[in-house]
Amino acid sequence: MLAKNLVWLFFCFALSGNTLTTSCKKEKTCKTSRTLGLKTSDCYKMDLKKFPTCLPPNVEVVELSYNRIRKVEYDDLHRYPYITHLYLTDNLISKLDDDIFKDSTSLETLDLSVNALFRVPPSIFQLPTLKTLYLSQNMNINVAESLENAKPILQSTLTKLDISYITEDGYTTDFPDFSDLPLLAFVNISGDQFNYLSPRHFAGLCNLQILANSNATAEFENDCDCWKINRWLAERKVVFTDFQCPNNKEDCIDDQIEFDDLEAFSKCMEKLQNIQFALYLKKVWIWIGVAVILIFFLSIIIVYIKWRKNKQKKRLTKRAKPLIRPPLAIEHKDQFQLMERLND
C-alpha cells in the first residue's frame, strides 16, 4: 500500500513538473539580469495579460509596466517571496485581494499607478519594509478609507507616497489621515480635489519635507485655515506651493494654530522618534550579529592554523629523532664486557 502511494506521489510530482515546464515554454520570456546587485526580471511592455509564473524564484525586482494585466492574486506573489521592487504601472488592474501581500515581507517599492483601482488593500500600509508607494492616476481611488481600515498601524516604514491625480473633474475626496505614518517625508497630492483641508490634516506629517501640491484644490472649513496651512508648512521648512486662499492674508493675522493640532504634532514626533530609535537598534543588533559571526569564524581559522602548526612541528620532531643508537651511547657495563672479550 505504501509503495503504491509513493509511486502515485512521484507520478503527480512528475506530471506537475511537466505541466509547469510546458506552460513556461508557452509563456513570454522576460529578460533576467543583475541591476545594482539585484536579480531583475524585465517584462516591460510585453503585452502580458497575466502575472508571469516562470520568473526565477529568487527574483528581487520585477518590471511589469505597460502591459495588459487585469488581475494580480496572492498566488502570483507567493511564489516570489524575495521581491523588493514591484512595478505594475499602466496596466488594467481593477482589484487587489486583501491578503495579496501577506507574504511580501521584503517589498520596499510598489508602483500601482495608472490602473483602475477603486481601493487598495489596507494591508499595504501594514507591510513591514515598504518605503515607496505609487498610487497616482487611479481615478477616484479611496485612499482615506484604506488608511482608516488599516489602523492601528504599529510601525510603518513608508517614507514616500504618490496619490496625485486620483480625482476626476467634479469629484472630490477626503484628505487621508496620515497620523500613523510618521516617517512620511514626501507626499504628492498634485491635481487632487479634496472636500476640505485644515491644519490638523498636516499635524500628523511631522517628518514631511516635500509636499507636491501643484493644481491641488480644496474647500476650507474656515477661510483662515488656508493661511494657517501655508504658515504651518512654511514654519516647518516644507517645500510646497502655497495654497490659493479665498481671502486676504491680513484678515487672518490674529488666527492661531489650535492646541489640538499642536498636540497631534507632538504625538507624531514621539512616534517618529520611537520608530527611528527602533530602526537604529535593529541596525545595531544586525551589526552585532555580523561581528559575532566574524569573530566566530576568525576563532575557527586561528584554532585551525595553530593545530596545523603543532601538527607540522610534531612531524618535524619525529623525523629528526635517530632510529639507531649511536656507538657513543653504549652504556658503561656493555663497554667493560667488550674489553674483556678483546683481552681473551
Describe the structure.
The protein is 37% helix and 13% strand. It has 344 residues and is an alpha/beta fold. The longest helix is centred in the last third of the chain and has 62 residues, at 259-320. It has one domain (27-275): Leucine-rich repeat, LRR (right-handed beta-alpha superhelix), CATH 3.80.10. The protein is elongated and about 140 Å long. It is built from seven helices and 13 strands. Residues 9-20 have low confidence and may be disordered. The strands form three sheets. A nine-stranded mixed β-sheet has the order 1-2-3-5-7-8-9-10-12, with no helix packed on it. Strands 4-6 form a two-stranded parallel ribbon. It starts with a helix and ends with a helix. It has helices spanning 2-26, 74-78, 143-150, 200-203, 225-235, 259-320, 332-343, and strands spanning 31-35, 38-42, 61-63, 71-72, 85-87, 95-96, 109-111, 132-134, 160-162, 186-188, 193-197, 210-212, 217-220.
Characteristic key phrases:
Leucine-rich repeat, LRR (right-handed beta-alpha superhelix); two-stranded parallel ribbon; 13% strand; nine-stranded mixed β-sheet; 344 residues; elongated; 7 helices; alpha/beta
